[in-house]
DNA sequence: CCGTATCCTGTAAGATACTG
DNA sequence: CAGTATCTTACAGGATACGG
């Protein structure tokens, strides 16, 4: 592997992170990074939700997109869906233990965001770039 | 706000995360989540890199995309670019302190990935979904 | 209430070729 | 070496309407 040479820098951080290139961080970031999933998971973290409740809570999401996200999260074992055969129909979504474990890395991202996001926004004002503005 | 009712669940986690809905976690996740940025930052974490070095290290990236990502990271103050007016030309990219601070949330994601990603992959095998497979 | 079904759009990214 | 210039593709997401 010639991707990284930890000796190039004295810091211990580099060594720590060299391995990450072989680890599945990227797919997990895809998982976390999809536009709505974080809001869905955060809402579910506050308690079980029905479809329409989520739809209201996650402002702006369309039913199609909400369904798609929920199905994906369910497939990955992060969210569980319980269907009640009643009239009118009822479906309840909640976080699985695996889904709840995601709150830990979320927290780290959140902490970083609170501390540094303002700095980035300041920089962006009056600048332009090819890269997405992320918001 | 009626987006979340922390009292719905006894757990302390919910209260902790209720605030996150108002915080800039999402844009930061966009920042981290762009397909290549994590690999770029991780490589730069190991030491200063020239354009071509990054191109080799980040396997599969095209120069256009690499440039676009680097410009965005530079705009946001995560990466600095130093140009040497020499022949042949030389440009060196490195992480700013702000960029290095990103390694902390990365680490949290990475830890989660190592612990739980296998579980998710197992679940995905033999299943299909509307959601992107993320890898 | 809980979704599906279509159609459409925006944009990151890929392929390829070229320049200071 | 360090990029830029086009063109094209893939796909999450948006708008809107309908079905069980």
UniProtKB/TrEMBL annotation, chains A, B:
<dbReference type="InterPro" id="IPR036388">
    <property type="entry name" value="WH-like_DNA-bd_sf"/>
</dbReference>
<keyword id="KW-0238">DNA-binding</keyword>
<keyword id="KW-0805">Transcription regulation</keyword>
<dbReference type="InterPro" id="IPR036390">
    <property type="entry name" value="WH_DNA-bd_sf"/>
</dbReference>
<protein>
    <submittedName>
        <fullName>Helix-turn-helix transcriptional regulator</fullName>
    </submittedName>
</protein>
<keyword id="KW-0804">Transcription</keyword>
<feature type="domain" description="HTH hxlR-type">
    <location>
        <begin position="23"/>
        <end position="121"/>
    </location>
</feature>
<dbReference type="InterPro" id="IPR002577">
    <property type="entry name" value="HTH_HxlR"/>
</dbReference>
<dbReference type="Pfam" id="PF01638">
    <property type="entry name" value="HxlR"/>
</dbReference>
